[in-house]
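Subject: two folds for Thursday's group meeting

Dear M.,

Sorry for the delay on this. The cluster queue was jammed most of the week, so I only got both jobs back this morning. I'm pasting them in the order they finished. Each block is the input sequence followed by the predicted structure tokens. Could you check whether the formatting survives your parser before we put anything on slides? The first protein is the one we discussed after the seminar.
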Amino acid sequence: MYTEEQKASPYHREFWHLLSNEERSWVILRCYSDNILKKHEVEAYLQKDRLNNWFTNTLPLGIFPLLYKTLPELSPALKFGHAANRKLGFTLLAGLPLFIAWRRLNPFRTALTAERERLLEVLAKRIGWTHLLNSNELLPRWMTEFEINRRLRVIVKQRTGALAGIVFPTQEGWAPLLAKDPWSQVEPS
């Protein structure tokens, strides 16, 4: 779609850059449901999503006791007197910016975003950018990224689990529901 010179430009954005994370995850879910993506293509995405879910919230909570013991020891005012309430308040106020910074600069979140972008590039080459953007039309606005990825995990387990072919359709049993888009040859404006 784009030349290498255009992609190397610092101003280059893919055509889905205006979509939110929920909308991008929804496109991946819809394309897996329509058998456009296969299990081996979404496994890395689901693994990175699982790591992101675990470490985004549990790592800061696990570090809190360490902060509670070490940070007040650095402050001489909290070493003397009745400082238990001040010690907890000091730890919370010092830990809050660390928690916010971790949520923003989390390397697991960055890896998940990179994997999502890779899947969207695969889909853009496979079915075209107009189908890619049109598969976002029916997104319920109350759904979160976590819920969408949970649904993707459920569908993957159903199609590849012990009851695949008996209760649930198998992954190899049918062709993709979406043909290549003839309008995808036109460059997005």
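Second protein, same layout:
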Amino acid sequence: MKTLRKSQYLWLKMLNEHRKSPEKTITISDEEYEELITLGKHIDIYNETEEEHDYSDTLTNNQVEGSYTGNEVVIVNLEESSNDTKTYEFTKVSDTSINMTVPEIGTGGMMTIPSFQVNGITITKDVNNIKGNITMYEGVINGEDDSTKTYVISDLIAIFNDNMVAITYSMRYGNMPFVMKITFIGTRK
């Protein structure tokens, strides 16, 4: 059994519900909503009549750019592989695009994946959240021994709100037989 802070669980639950549903709304209980507010986590609850708007032309660097430190959970083959404090970096490329630098994944040794980039994440603003997503991104990591390994990131969703970010994505690295499911919840420094 693993322990998550209640705020982490609620963010992950919200992201998971958002990924499963094509709808623009997410339903959470009154208790979950109050817990999020109490913990200082803000979440938008959309009325059925509200429409999602793209305000990407009003985005500014200080809304997404920076270093976010928090908890990263990596699931491999339905088992938790690591649960560590990490720092993710975001740089703004344009009004509608950001790049993300992911720190090394793992706890050292042969199973460690070096730091890597995910470029061209599309961002949109909707009410108080900024949402980032990319369906698929493929890159190459150069190892210390001059070897290279490809990685594929898929189904990445990032939600920025105030000074927080919640991210989920899948990753296939090199010849690994399993896809890694990664979640990260962090606060901007």
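Two things I noticed about the second structure. The two ends are 30 Å apart (CA to CA). The chain has one domain: 52-188.

Cheers,
T.
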